[in-house]
Hints:
There is one protein chain. By secondary structure, this protein is mostly helical. The chain has one domain (20-157). The protein is 56% helix and 9% strand.
Amino acid sequence: xxxxxxxxxxxxxxxxxxxxxxxxxxxxxxxxxxxxxxxxxxxxxxxxxxxxxxxxxxxxxxxxxxxxxxxxxxxxxxxxxxxxxxxxxxxxxxxxxxxxxxxxxxxxxxxxxxxxxxxxxxxxxxxxxxxxxxxxxxxxxxxxxxxxxxxxxxxxxx
Length: 158
């Protein structure tokens, strides 16, 4: 119960889907990526996440939100707080990052990692998996400037 109480302003339903070890799992995944000194393809990355989480729900949350959190910290722009979740039935739901328990916890771990002399390779290995990172990277490679970037809502397919 303390775990749920520690997540401020978050939906009780969202918080119940996460184990008390969720943040430790996120930390372990980042550490294993750092220790491996290799770039993971998408399948290897997902497998690493699955090996370090208690269930598929947590694995999927980390797979989706860890790259987004790293990108938001790496690229200093005004990121929208809202995202769109598109369900298999086509229904779209607007959600807020700061009200999503898994994202909030992942972002806290990512902030902690960024404060501790982070590895550039680890940051790129994780952040480059997000559509946001790839859009920003392509824009900058085409000659754009960071201050010209305007981010739109992320769409997450569930």
